[in-house]
Amino acid sequence: MVAQLDYPTMKEVFRRFAEANPHPEGELEHVNAFTLLVAVALSAQATDVGVNRATHGLWPVADTPQKMLALGEDGLIEHIKSIGLYRNKAKNVIALSRLLMERFGGQVPSSRAALVSLPGVGRKTANVVLNMGWGHPAQAVDTHIFRVGNRSGICPGKDVDVVERAIEDNVPVEYQRHAHHWLILHGRYICTARKPRCADCLIRDLCRFEEKTA
User: What does the record note about the cofactor (predicted)?
Assistant: First the structure.
C-alpha cells in the first residue's frame, strides 16, 4: 500500500481538482431527495447511465413515497427491469417508501442512522444522499474512489471504511464538500481500472502510482 500524501501535496491535488471542475455533480438523474435516494439504491452493481435510462420514465409518475407505493412493486419492475437485481431492488424501494411514510412523515431523513435503517440503504448510499441532498461533507466510497485513493496516496486504506476515514482526516476542509465527486469522476474517466490515462492526469506529478502509463 502506498503512503498517505502529505498535507501540502493534498492541498495542491484538490486545488487542481477544484480549478478544473469548481462545481462537480453526481451523474445520477433525480428531481428531489426521494428520487436521489431511490436512484442511488438502484445504482448498486449497475451503471449510472443504466439507472438514468430506467428512471427517465419513472420520476414523472413516482417522485414521492406516496406515488411509489401507488405504483406498486409490479409497476416499478416494469420501469427498472433493465437494471441488475431489479426484483430485489424493487422490493426494497417499495419497503423503504412504506417506512418513509410510516416513520418519517413521507420525508427523506437527514441523519445517517435514520437512512441506513431503510431497506437496501447502506452507508455508501446514505453518504451520497447526505452529501448531494443535504450538502453535508459525507464521503461515499465506491470502487473508483477505493482504486484512486490506493493508487495515488490520496486516501489509501485496506477497506472502504479506512478510505472514508482517510478522506475525512486528510483532505483540507475547504475541499471536503466535493471531495468524493472529484475522486469518483477522476476514477471513472482518467484513473480507470485497466488502462489509466496517466498522460491526461492533472495530478500525475503528485501521484504515488509507480506503474504510470505513457
Answer: Binds 1 [4Fe-4S] cluster.
Question: Quick one: which of 88, 93, 51 has its CA closest to 72?
Answer: 93
Catalytic residue among 48, 63, 91, 124: 124
Q: What pLDDT digit, counting tens, does each position of 57-72 carry?
A: 999 999 999 999 999 9
Residues of the chain below pLDDT 50: none
Find out whether 201 is annotated in a ligand binding site.
yes
Our answer to whether residue 159 is catalytic in this structure is no
Range(s) within the chain of domains with CATH label 1.10.340.30:
33-134
pLDDT of residue 170: 98
Q: Where along the chain do the CATH 1.10.1670.10 domains lie? A: 7-25+138-200
Distinct helix (H) and strand (E) counts, the chain: 10, 0
**Residue 124 catalytic?**
yes
Q: What fold does the segment set 7-25+138-200 form as a domain?
A: Endonuclease Iii, domain 2 (1.10.1670)
Query: Is 155 within any annotated ligand binding site?
Result: no
> Are the C-beta atoms of 142 and 184 separated by less than 8 Å?
yes
Catalytic residue among 142, 159, 169, 205: 142
- Tell me the per-residue pLDDT of 2-29, one tens digit each, with 9 for 90 and over: 999 999 999 999 999 999 999 998 899 9
**Contact (Cβ atoms closer than 8 angstroms) between residue 71 and residue 78:** no
